[in-house]
Structure formats: C-alpha cells, structure tokens
Design brief:
alpha+beta; 2 domains; two-stranded antiparallel sheet; two-stranded parallel sheet; 4 strands; globular
C-alpha cells in the first residue's frame, strides 16, 4: 500500500532545505516529493491561507480563507471559524475509498483545513486534550504530536 506523508514546517524558507542544513528533509524531497526549491506559496503569505491551499488545490480567492483572521459580517473572525469552501483532499480520499489521517501541533488547523473530514484526526475536533504539554504560544508541544500519528506511519 502506498502511503503519502505531507509535512509542513511553517515558516521554514525553502532555501534552507539543503543537504547541509536539513539533510533528512532534503533526502525525502529528492526521493519522493517535489524537487527542492520548486514549492511556491500563495499570497497572502500567511499560515492558514497556504494550508487551505494545500488541501483544496485552490487559491485563497477560490477557497475563501484569505488570512489567519478576516472580517465576516463586519466582525473579526478566525480562519478556524470559517474553514475552506468546497471539497478538500480529505473528501477526495473518501470519494476514492482511500483512508486519510491528519495530525497537527496547531490545533486550529483541524477546522481551518476541514481535517475533521479525514478518517482520523488529532487533536479531536481541534481541542487540545487536557494534560497535553503546550509550547509558549499555546500550541501542542512537538513531543506530544509525533506519538499521535496513526499506527504504521513512519516516524522520522
């Protein structure tokens, strides 16, 4: 069975994906992913519009997540309260009778990316479980995230 892992290192410039700086990531990209240096982001250069583009294959003006926060009915609204319009990668997997799973350290991404449409997602409903260690910004600590990957997933 073919498995696909999509890894996002938010804020890491692609120019740092080199054999010297990130040898494991360089090898993964060279072996099975898009060639290093060919990835492009969307504008605005913000986390949530880019992540929604990943799962929809559409630009922000089409999927509707225009910023991390934006105005809806005249009120500032977080992207997680809106989510993408239209189908996502998780819908395509379901329609093709393929399983999907989503694990993230940023709990808001579950709703931002409509990852609750995946067969499995963590943190459940985008809520950090009680007792989970958090980082200084309130996201789930890295050490808590990796063990949550589904069984059979390769851990680097």
């Amino acid at each position: 069975m073919t498995r696909v892992a999509f890894i996002v290192l938010d804020g890491m410039p692609s120019r740092h994906v080199t054999p010297e700086v990130a040898p494991c990531l360089w090898a993964l990209a060279a072996e099975a992913g898009r060639p290093p240096g060919e990835a492009t982001g969307v504008m605005p250069a913000a986390t949530y519009p880019n992540h929604v583009t990943f799962v929809t294959g559409r630009r922000p003006e089409d999927h509707g997540v225009l910023a991390n926060w934006f105005f809806v009915d005249g009120k500032p609204t977080p992207a997680e309260a809106v989510g993408p319009s239209g189908p996502t990668l998780f819908d395509a997997c379901r329609d093709a009778r393929r399983s999907s799973a989503f694990v993230a350290g940023d709990q808001h991404l579950v709703k931002v990316m409509a990852a609750d449409r995946a067969d499995e997602h963590w943190p459940a409903d985008g809520e950090v479980p009680e007792g989970c260690e958090r980082d200084a910004k309130g996201y789930v600590a890295d050490a808590e995230v990796a063990p949550r990957t589904p069984p059979g997933t390769t851990r680097w």
